[in-house]
Fold this protein.
Amino acid sequence: KFDEVGAGVEVIFAGVAGAHPEKSVAPAFEDVVEADHKRLTEIEKAEADAIRTLAGVVGEVDRAKSIVVELDEWERLKNAKAEAERTIRQEQKVNDLIASAGGEAASLISEARAARWTAYFRARGAAASSEGLVLSYRAAPLPFKVARYLEALREGSKNSRVWIVPFDTRVNVNMEEQEPVVTGFAPSDGSKQ
């Protein structure tokens, strides 16, 4: 405007040092500013939680993001009913990424694999044992049955007061109660010894 009037004054800068809303609307204005600060604080907290969680699960955030991309691809292949070999390769890629990343996810996968192998070998051992029992039975049915019967009796009576002996034995049990012996307790006669 100075230039239009030709006042001969050159304005280099114009600024407002402070502006405040009118007193009646000031609390509402401050509420908006405070809400904006709270929103930014919550966003920063959420980002920090995300980083902490991702770092705990797979070691670092960038690795977690790449794993998520591969997981999304695996889900897409499964939903699109892609060829089985391709889906399996993608699943293996995800598992390898998680296992190499370290963190809780890798630990859980390792524990699950160990449990799977333990269950597998336990079942395989039980199957082999069953096959051995069948072969033993076929080789000698009567001794096999007797041995199994005695084993069952022994197991069933291990905490009871029953004795199983292999030949004709007589056991005499005296069930009489003996007179209890009480010593060390004699009434004092009042004199000191």
In short: The CA atoms of residues 18 and 26 lie 14 Å apart. The radius of gyration is 43 Å. The mean pLDDT is 81.
